């Protein structure tokens, strides 16, 4: 006797960044944030959770390797899931008995290992979503995913998703809400530029803790910038106003990284390639006379670009020209991208972007789009 559920969940990339906690235990943020969940074709987490009378204790496997289930963040999610499952009245005795059984959890990411995209967001969203299905919990579970990793709460939904800062001490209003459905802006594309890098970066958790403790600019951002910026961003998305969307996305990424620099001692996640990509994009946008592409960076050197589908070929040519792959192997360079590999750009563009090409500085490009929220897979 037992029961098993398998689900998948997307990664998400914020355009208004979460950076700072006001409560480390419950993972409550200092400001609201907004992201798009990405299509699960290329990047996703998959989790199978099983309960059985036969299992002796709770166990956890990550990418095929057993890990301790005592991890405090996993425990916080598991405890809250079981508490909520108990709260549901089960007249059916067989179901309430199930709550005392141990659980086995197997979680896998299909992120390219070298990509440095090992986002905990998809992992925790998937864990919590899967457990909620296993235990028949209805209603929003984003506040449970939030206890695993802040950004995970946004991966509980598809499309454009806001995580509201909330006011309550228990965090019940610090939850994810859909701003626009996955079908709302179908022209939107996402390019993930995986930057070559060996450095081990400060984790988001430690980085934002240091920022909260030492950066005055973080407080200024939370109080005086994000609230109005968030309203503008939601309006830009609702109206599909790409110019506004791109400007706010660029500014907010730069502001988060400015807060990191204002942290003492300073944190810098970008490297020379990251900065070169920024310069290239600003030069390109200027040459075009309007914003054709927006960049954003998380706690590492990889760039994520938000752009409209009609501009993908030009932007990919630009990337290929300034950041050609060392070995010129096209297939590995352009993952999942059905455009011709061409490195020729106009002489005009070469003149306005005053950069020397950097072969090998970008390992590869993942081309994707805004996608759906977690999915339940049929039982095998
Ligand atoms: C830079 O959600 O990874 O990606 O809550 O400590 O687990 P914890 O941090 P995490 O932080 C993500 C920060 C970010 C910006 C964002 O996704 O909003």
From TrEMBL:
It comes from the Eukaryota. Residues 190-377 form the Mvd1 C-terminal domain. Its EC number is 4.1.1.33. Pfam families: MDD_C (PF18376), MVD-like_N (PF22700). Pathway: Steroid biosynthesis; cholesterol biosynthesis. Residues 9-176 form the Diphosphomevalonate decarboxylase-like N-terminal domain. InterPro entries: GHMP_kinase_C_sf (IPR036554), Mev_decarb (IPR005935), Mev_diP_decarb (IPR029765), MVD-like_N (IPR053859), Mvd1_C (IPR041431), Ribosomal_Su5_D2-typ_SF (IPR020568), Ribsml_uS5_D2-typ_fold_subgr (IPR014721). It catalyses: (R)-5-diphosphomevalonate + ATP = isopentenyl diphosphate + ADP + phosphate + CO2. Keywords: ATP-binding, Cholesterol biosynthesis, Cholesterol metabolism, Lipid biosynthesis, Lipid metabolism, Lyase, Nucleotide-binding, Steroid biosynthesis, Steroid metabolism, Sterol biosynthesis, Sterol metabolism. It is an enzyme of class 4 (lyase). Belongs to the diphosphomevalonate decarboxylase family. Catalyzes the ATP dependent decarboxylation of (R)-5-diphosphomevalonate to form isopentenyl diphosphate (IPP). Functions in the mevalonate (MVA) pathway leading to isopentenyl diphosphate (IPP), a key precursor for the biosynthesis of isoprenoids and sterol synthesis. This is Diphosphomevalonate decarboxylase. It comes from Saccoglossus kowalevskii (Acorn worm). The lineage of its organism: Eukaryota, Metazoa, Hemichordata, Enteropneusta, Harrimaniidae. The gene is LOC100371618.
């Amino acid at each position: 006797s037992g029961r098993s559920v398998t689900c998948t969940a997307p990664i998400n990339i914020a355009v208004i960044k979460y950076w700072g906690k006001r409560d480390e235990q419950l993972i409550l943020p200092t400001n609201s944030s907004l992201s798009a969940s990405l299509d699960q074709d290329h990047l996703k987490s998959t989790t199978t959770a099983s309960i059985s009378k036969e299992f002796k204790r709770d166990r956890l496997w990550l990418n095929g390797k057993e890990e301790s289930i005592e991890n405090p963040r996993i425990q916080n999610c598991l405890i809250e899931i079981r508490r909520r499952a108990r709260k549901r009245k089960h007249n059916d005795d067989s179901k309430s008995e199930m709550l005392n059984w141990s659980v086995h959890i197997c979680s896998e990411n299909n992120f390219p290992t070298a990509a440095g995209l090992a986002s905990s967001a998809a992992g925790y969203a998937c864990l919590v979503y899967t457990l909620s299905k296993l235990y028949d919990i209805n209603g929003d579970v984003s506040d449970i995913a939030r206890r695993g990793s802040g950004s995970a709460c946004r991966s509980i939904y598809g499309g454009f998703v806001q995580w509201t800062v909330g006011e309550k001490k228990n965090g019940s209003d610090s939850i994810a809400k859909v701003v626009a459905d996955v079908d709302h802006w179908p022209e939107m594309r996402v390019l993930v530029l995986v930057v070559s890098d060996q450095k081990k970066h400060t984790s988001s958790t430690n980085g934002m803790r240091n920022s909260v403790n030492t950066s005055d600019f973080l407080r200024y951002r939370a109080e005086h910038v994000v609230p109005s910026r968030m309203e503008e961003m939601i309006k830009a998305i609702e109206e599909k106003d790409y110019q506004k969307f791109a400007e706010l996305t660029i500014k907010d990424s730069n502001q988060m990284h400015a807060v990191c620099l204002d942290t003492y001692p300073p944190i810098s996640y970008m490297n020379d390639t990251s900065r070169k990509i920024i310069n290239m994009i600003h030069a390109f946008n200027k040459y075009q006379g309007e914003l054709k592409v927006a960049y954003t960076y998380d706690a590492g050197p990889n760039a994520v670009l938000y752009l409209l589908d009609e501009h993908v070929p030009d932007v990919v040519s630009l990337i290929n020209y300034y950041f050609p792959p060392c070995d010129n192997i096209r297939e590995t360079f352009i993952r999942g991208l059905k455009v011709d590999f061409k490195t020729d750009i106009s002489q005009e563009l070469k003149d306005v972007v005053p950069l020397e090409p950097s072969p090998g500085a970008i390992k590869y490009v993942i081309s994707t789009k805004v996608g759906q929220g977690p999915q339940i897979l049929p039982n095998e």
